[in-house]
Amino acid sequence: KALKTAQDNNDTWTELWAYSGIGDIYFDLGDSHNAIRSFEYYLDRATGLGSKTDRAIALNDIGRVYLEYKEDYDKAREYFLEALDLAVLTGYTLMEGVATANIGVVYSKKGSYKKALTYHDKGISIVRSLNNTYTEMQGLSEKGETLFQMEKYKEALECHLLSVELSESIGNNVEKWKYELNAAKTYEGLEDVDNAIAYYKQSINTLSGIKKKIKSDALKQGFSDQERQIEVYKRLIDLLIKNNMAKEAFRYIEESKSKIIKDAFGDVKPIAYDEDLQNTLSQVDKIEKKKEAIERQLFEERKKPKEEQDKTKIDILTNTLATTEGEFNQWMLTLKFQ
C-alpha cells in the first residue's frame, strides 16, 4: 500500500523505503527471487536520489540474499565490501559493523574460520559501541555458528544463548527461532540431550507463532519448506525417536506440514521402541555425516584456482559422493517403510 501510494504521488523517498521493507519481508519468507528484485529497486532509487547510506544498506541486503539463499559466497563478499566502503566513506558506523560481520560469515562459509572470527569480533565491537541490540544479537549468532563449525561447543553455546536472550528482550521472534535452533544443535554437540530437545521444541513453538501471522497459504507453505525449518523438525524427531519418545515424535511429524519430513517419517508406527528403527536412524545419521564430509572435501578442492585443482581427487570424490547418496537414499527408503 505504501509503495502504491508513493508511486501515485511521485514520492521517491517513500517508494525507496517501501522497496526496502518489502525486500526484508521476502527475505524472511525465503523468497530469494522477489527479495533480490525488491532490493535492486531499492538500490536503483537510492542511486537516483544520491543517498550513499541507502546504497550501502541495499548493497548489504543483496549480499545477504547471495549469502543465505544462493550460496554464492564470492558474489556476496563483493556486495558486502562495496557496502563497507560506502559506510566508511559516509561515516555510517552501524553499516560498517554490519558489513564487517557479514564478511566474517562469508569467510566462515568458505572454511576460513580464524579469519572469520577476526571479522566477527570487529563487527560485534562496532555495533556494541552503538548499543544496537538487533545487530549485536545477529553478530553473536554468526560468531556462534563459526565456533560450532570449529567444534568449540561451549564458546558457541555462550554466543547462541546470549542471542536468544537479546532477541527475547526486543521481541524479535523472526530471528529468535533460528538462535534457539543453533542453541539446540550446540547442546546436541555437547551430548546434552535434555537441553537439546528443550531448545528444539522452543524453536518450533516460536516458529508456530510466526506461521499463524502469515495469511497467504502459498507464502506459509514456502516459509514452512525453508531448509532450516525442515532441519529443526528433523533433528527433534530424530532425537525423540532415539530416546524412546516415538509417540511424541509423531505429533511433530504432523505439525511440520512438510512433505520432506512426512516422506521420511510418515509411515513410522508411533507405538513402542523399535530396535530396527533405532539402527536405521543411526545408519541414516552415519551416512548423512559421511555425505556432508565428502561434499566439504569436494567444495574445498573445487574452490581452488583451476590450475591447482587435483582432477583425480575431484573425480574420486564425485564418484564416492554419488555412491554415498545412493546408500543414503536406500536407508531413507528403509526408514520410510519401517
β-sheet strand percentage: under 5%
Shape: globular
Report low-confidence residues grouped into runs of 5 or more: 269-273
Number of strands: 0
- Euclidean distance between termini CA atoms: 51 Å
Supply Rg: 22 Å
Helix content: over 70%
Largest sheet: none
Number of helices: 17
**How would you spell out the order of helices and strands?**
HHHHHHHHHHHHHHHHH
Describe the structure.
- With 338 residues, the chain is mainly alpha-helical.
- The protein has 17 helices and no strands.
- The protein has helices spanning 2-8, 12-29, 32-49, 52-68, 73-90, 93-109, 113-129, 133-149, 153-169, 173-189, 193-212, 217-224, 227-242, 246-256, 259-265, 275-302, 311-337.
- The termini are far apart.
Helices and strands, with pairings:
Layout: H1 2-8, H2 12-29, H3 32-49, H4 52-68, H5 73-90, H6 93-109, H7 113-129, H8 133-149, H9 153-169, H10 173-189, H11 193-212, H12 217-224, H13 227-242, H14 246-256, H15 259-265, H16 275-302, H17 311-337
Comma- or semicolon-separated keywords:
single chain; 338 residues; mainly alpha; 83% helix; globular
